[in-house]
Amino acid sequence: TSLEAAKRLAAYQAVNQHIKSGYIVGIGSGSTVIYAVERLAQRVATEKVVVSCVPTSFQARQLLVQNQLTLTDLDVTPNLDVCIDGADEVDSNLDLIKGGGGCLLQEKIVASCARKLIIIADYTKNSSQLGEQYKKGIPIEVAPMAYFPIKTRLEAKYQGQFMLRMAVNKAGPVVTHNGNFILDWTNFDQTLEWKNVNQELALIPGVVETGLFIQMAQEAYFGMPNGSVKVQK
Ligand code: DER
């Protein structure tokens, strides 16, 4: 099974299992959620399922518009029944690294407003410890004016490097939807207690959000190489 096929299998099963008519649904960002929106649109068309969706990025919003799904937002519907999103890595405690796509702030906000966060991914995201397979680092969204003092302070406190994420098709750093920069924390100690670390990071003036989603997800669906779907709860 190709990676894309694995993503599709996980996404389809998660949407089949967790979406009911009348639901308010948070829609994550990245390449795997594309298949979840595809399946959701099929279910709306064939089963007359009625849902409204809260996007977590421009990308997610475009996806929903392209699939003629009804949009809503947290002003109108602050209590979501379920949020379906991808992840860069999932460990054995269902803790996540997210933010590879730079949408971590809105993703965490929307996920925090949902009764359930369901993760969909291919098997390459299925690790026992964070950092085992995913090597691009833990994203940390920071206020632009503070990125350098934060980088300096964190490199003094923790093992690893905190690299300013540079844009590819635009000169300069990546600027998030919320006008912030991202530091990617690479080569970190994989045995750290992530709940504590996440709290320490969040308290630093200028840190807006981290890509550590600790004890937020209820289930993770992994598309496997043999075409099966592994569900971690
Ligand atoms: O950036 C994000 O948090 C995305 O959800 C990412 O973690 C998953 O993206 P993918 O589905 O393209 O791997």
UniProtKB/TrEMBL annotation:
- Asked if the Swiss-Prot or TrEMBL record annotates the protein with the keyword Isomerase, the reply is yes
| Pathway where it operates | Carbohydrate degradation; pentose phosphate pathway; D-ribose 5-phosphate from D-ribulose 5-phosphate (non-oxidative stage): step 1/1
**Catalysed reaction equations from the record:** aldehydo-D-ribose 5-phosphate = D-ribulose 5-phosphate
One GO MF term on file is: ribose-5-phosphate isomerase activity
Q: Which UniProt keywords apply?
A: Isomerase
CDD domains the UniProt entry points to = RPI_A (cd01398)
List the GO biological process terms: D-ribose metabolic process; pentose-phosphate shunt, non-oxidative branch
- Uppermost EC category: isomerase
GO cellular component term, pick one: cytoplasm
Gene3D superfamilies xref list: 3.30.70.260, 3.40.50.1360
Can you tell which superkingdom this protein's organism belongs to? Eukaryota
Q: What is its EC number?
A: 5.3.1.6
Per the record, a Pfam family?
Rib_5-P_isom_A
Assigned protein family: Belongs to the ribose 5-phosphate isomerase family.
Please report the name of this protein according to its UniProt entry: Ribose-5-phosphate isomerase
| Gene it is expressed from | 109535623
